[in-house]
Design brief:
The protein is built from 2 helices and 2 strands; from the N terminus they run ββαα. With 65 residues, the protein is an alpha+beta fold. The protein starts with a strand and ends in an 8-residue tail after the last helix.
C-alpha cells in the first residue's frame, strides 16, 4: 500500500476508492431523510444498497467483506 512520509511519520493512503454519484433531487431528499432517521451518513446508505445489489446479482460475492 502506498504511503507518504510527513515529519518522520508514515501516513497510509486510503484503501477505499471514492465514487461520485448524481441523483434526482427527490431521491437525494429521501436518502437525506433516511440518513437522519438512522443517524448515519448518506454514504453508508449508498454503500449498503450497493453491497445488497451486488449480492443479489452475483450471490457468490455475497460473502465478501
Amino acid at each position: 500500500m502506498p504511503s507518504v512520509k510527513r515529519k518522520d511519520q508514515k501516513i497510509k493512503a486510503s484503501q477505499s476508492p471514492r465514487a461520485s454519484v448524481t441523483s434526482p433531487p427527490d431521491l437525494y431528499q429521501t436518502l437525506e431523510d433516511l440518513a437522519k432517521k438512522k443517524k448515519v451518513f448518506i454514504a453508508w446508505i449508498v454503500r449498503d444498497a450497493a453491497e445488497k445489489y451486488v449480492a443479489d446479482q452475483w450471490p457468490l460475492f455475497a460473502s465478501r467483506p
